[in-house]
Design goal:
The structure is a homodimer of 397-residue chains. Chain A is of the alpha/beta class. The first copy, chain A, is built from 16 helices and twelve strands.
Chain lengths: 397, 397
């Protein structure tokens, strides 16, 4: 597949930028759009922070070099958004990571994927059904994506070892959770891959799991929820899939079985009932046939590197549905901006009725940059929701 | 509730007409529309048959008197369409029986009903869930309708004895199937009712069960399928409910459980997933509030009897969606009409693409009466399907 390839130095700059304090995928994109490249953004960031009355800790070149080298030693590498191995389906989501750390076979990332997620405390029947579904999906040509957790995730990976499976980790690639699944991870690398957006050495924290779930759904044309209680991480994955415009499937179960509550609820909300692999295959097949190459415009199909092509990449990636934060003139705040204050302010201004980002910025009296830097955190913290057309609302507790 | 009341003699004539050979609910309606009343139709029927080269055995007055008397002796009575106790929701279906034999409390027929149907070989969990659902529906004010079969039907009736339940029998009211459920039937009469369109003494034949199922769904604002294999009578009931414009609910189950196949399939086809009674109640509640009195036009809200009011009743009942067979000039067939020939001809002319009745009659070269008399049989034999707008198609085997 065609695409740009970053130079080693560019890759290190991208890594420094995304590993710097307060920089997530959305802010990374804003900064790239504004400054034309990662190196320029790194140069500008300390001044930007100072102007906002803050300091920001930049990741150093030495730290970035150490991460790349450590990853190389365990057989992994970093793939940048827009590069040939970067999965185009993932690239289409709003919060696609600029860099993915990958172990195993990166080529599986470009095959059609279906996510299988569910309860850690799976029933024997749920695990059995998951195995059958994963095997059938694998035989139908799909790569099975899951989160390497106990229960359903484990059954999904195990049944698709031969056909290719992707484990998306919540922490660094060397911080496998749960540790009992380290042997499973090693086995799946033969025909599949493990990926993470997190630095090596980072043990996953509670909040990293829902954040990771957006990548499980984002890699996949559809997400199947197999057994899930009413409040569970699998439902978060399903919600991400829905917001990303992907198909959501749920496996039904007896209303007397608490592990079926989540799936039955999803079906009532519009998820496709999945009782066998063909229900997934027939719904996803037309999506594979679609030419998704629009995600990487022809002008970028070249080998050129350098800041210009990176700038072009980011400009071109601002496609409908992939909304970049608005670029305002460099703001000169009238008072010290405390990030906790901005969070509270945004939460106070948002209600359950969706409003436009512009209106939010105007109502806040803060800069568009301050507001947009706050939104991803709130979104991943499950406190706000994005709607089509760039509208935002608060999620009631 | 207002309505007309038949005289004793009219009731006997209606009974003779519906019990005569080849006269089903649809033909009954055609004959009433054509001749203005049951007595006139009985007078005309032998000639009509002779003109068609056939004979028709009419039910005699003595037979009708015996049936009414036998019904009276077991505590039952006949309720005619349009009478105050005839359920208006049932009256709205295409093949509503002109007369219903009723035991128990006829007033439950006019309360909002929900049907609960499912497998005779129910699982313990299925029976338990059915009991809970029936009890909750009863407490929410619904009368539970079912077919008195073993398994799910039995659980549904038992759990709604106190709040009111209706058993719809496939044979005569004195031919309870299965006989083990005679005690259950007797208990449910205290607060509920048993009904049948069939004559006393008729032991139900195989084909009477699917025919009966249209009354289970037809009495009810919605039908809930609890446990059903892929091919089962419950799915026929669901299909009738759908064709009657009623809501269909299905209880999901594990894809590993064959008893869940029918329900899961229905949900994929658009049935509402029911995991608790509130899912039924919230969907049906708005339908109760609708003023359904249009089913019985104000001009008929009077006590008058006589052929004129019956004629008016039938004329007025030809409302949109309640299609009467077309009334053609008295046909003079050019050759002997064999009813088996007409069946074959109709089946040959119909394909899977729906066509209008008029076009079918024209293509057949037969009279509209011959064709329409054949259609109900084919429909109940599950060989043809009616579509909105009076279109017809064949069901592929």
């Amino acid at each position: 597949m065609a695409g740009i390839v970053l130079s080693d130095r560019q890759r290190l700059d991208w890594l420094r930028l995304i590993r710097s304090e307060s920089v997530g995928p959305r802010t990374f994109r804003s900064l790239m759009n504004r400054f034309g490249g990662a190196a320029a953004a790194l140069d500008a960031l300390p001044d930007l922070a100072r102007q906002a009355g803050r300091t920001v800790r930049l990741s150093t070149l030495a730290e970035a070099e150490r991460e790349v080298e450590a990853l190389r030693r365990i057989g992994g590498r970093l793939i940048a958004m827009g590069e040939p191995d970067y999965p185009r389906v993932l690239q289409a989501i709003d919060t696609a990571p600029p860099l993915l750390a990958v172990l195993g076979r990166p080529e599986v990332l470009s095959r059609p994927c279906a996510a299988l997620v569910g309860s850690r405390n799976a029933s024997a029947a749920g695990a059995k059904f998951t195995g059958r579904l994963a095997r059938d999906l694998g035989e139908a040509g799909f790569v099975v994506v899951s989160g390497l957790a106990r229960g359903i995730d484990t059954a999904a990976h195990e049944a698709s070892l031969a056909t290719g499976t992707i484990a998306v980790l919540a922490g660094g690639l060397d911080e496998v959770y749960p540790p009992q699944n380290i042997p499973l991870l090693q086995r799946l690398l033969a025909e599949g891959a493990a990926i993470s957006e997190m630095p090596l050495g980072l043990a996953p924290r509670g909040r990293d799991f829902p954040r990771r779930n957006r990548l499980v759904s984002g890699l996949s044309l559809g997400t199947v929820v197999v057994e899930a209680a009413r409040k569970s991480g699998s439902l978060i994955t399903a919600r991400f899939a829905n917001e990303q415009g992907r198909l959501v499937f749920a496996v039904p179960g007896s209303p007397l079985d608490p592990r079926a509550e989540g799936g039955n609820h999803l079906i009532r909300e519009g998820a496709i009932l999945c009782a066998e692999a063909s229900h997934v295959v027939e719904a996803l097949a037309p999506l594979i046939e679609e030419d998704r190459s629009y995600l990487l415009p022809p002008s970028l199909v070249r080998d050129g590197a350098g800041e210009d092509s990176a700038q072009a990449l980011w400009d071109e990636l601002d496609l409908p549905g992939i909304e970049a934060a608005p670029v305002a003139p460099v703001p000169v705040p009238e008072r010290v901006t405390d990030s906790i204050d901005v969070r509270s302010l945004v939460l106070q201004l948002l209600g359950t009725t969706p409003i436009a980002l512009d209106d939010l910025v105007r109502a806040s009296g803060r800069s568009a940059r301050d507001i947009s830097m706050t939104l991803l955190d709130l979104e991943l913290g499950n406190l706000i929701r994005r709607h089509p057309g760039g509208l935002l609302s608060r999620i009631e507790a």
